[in-house]
């Protein structure tokens, strides 16, 4: 497989940096071809401006329209085009970052903002004229794995943890970006408690990452419901007989995992929360 590894951490000696290097080596040992976009090392510009689209400064900038026009005209900046070409080349995509304030680092968000432009990753129509999204799109057939680290211990990212379940925290990235653009999204790998890692913990994390990478071509993706799978009405609202009585992001999964974490609002319960939950590290 061709694997694109996008890493976002300013320190190459960090847990993120060390694991990214080891992960690349593991993939190459398995016979995969790997390209790396180390965003900090590249000096990636994360800021969207009209300059990306050669937009006249005296006219109002409508980012979607301007980006689509520049994409179709072949006028996007060279750094953006290079990343799009990597995505087309890749059979699998790894996004690797520390979880900062319950989200991706700004530089990685800016990579998505500048690379996933209209006409390339959204606003794309099929031969039938219908918009390609949520299970269909430029990343159709591409497997996507998110690897992230956080300071809080594992329980606070569990189904009843105060930080929220990791699948829900990452829903905008997993579902709203990767699955929207068509990727087969694998269960994310969260390395929790990273700010207190010992050498032995780091070795276990390395082994866990290698195990997940060994399954990158075979692991079962998250069971997100495709837009065209018959589960949504014409307004793209989930049909009432599916996940009845339930709300929240879990209803957009077709397996029973979402139901376990997102019961109906009437199913009340109580729990004790962990006393300490650092937000991030990596």
Architecture blueprint of SSEs:
Layout: E1 2-7, H1 15-29, E2 33-38, H2 39-42, H3 63-73, H4 78-89, E3 92-98, H5 106-115, E4 143-149, H6 166-169, H7 171-179, E5 184-185, E6 189-191, H8 199-214, H9 257-261
Helix pairs in contact: 1-8
Specify the helix fraction band: 25-40%
- Which blocks of ≥5 consecutive residues have pLDDT under 50? 264-280
The string of secondary-structure elements, in order, is EHEHHHEHEHHEEHH
Content of β-strand: 5-15%
Mean pLDDT: 87
| CATH homologous superfamily annotation | Flavodoxin domain
Radius of gyration: 20 Å
Sketch the major β-sheet.
6 strands, parallel
Domain Flavodoxin-like fold: 1-213
GO molecular function, one term: NAD(P)H dehydrogenase (quinone) activity
Pfam family, one: Flavodoxin_2
EC number: 1.6.5.2
Give an overview in words.
With 282 residues, the protein is α/β, with parallel strands linked by helices. The protein has one domain: 3-Layer(aba) Sandwich (Rossmann fold). Helix content is 30%, strand content 11%. The chain is built from nine helices and six strands, in the order βαβαααβαβααββαα. Strands 1, 2, 3, 4, 5 and 6 form a six-stranded parallel sheet that branches. Helix 1 packs parallel to helix 8. The longest helix has 16 residues. It is globular and about 55 Å long. It starts with a strand and ends in a 21-residue tail after the last helix.
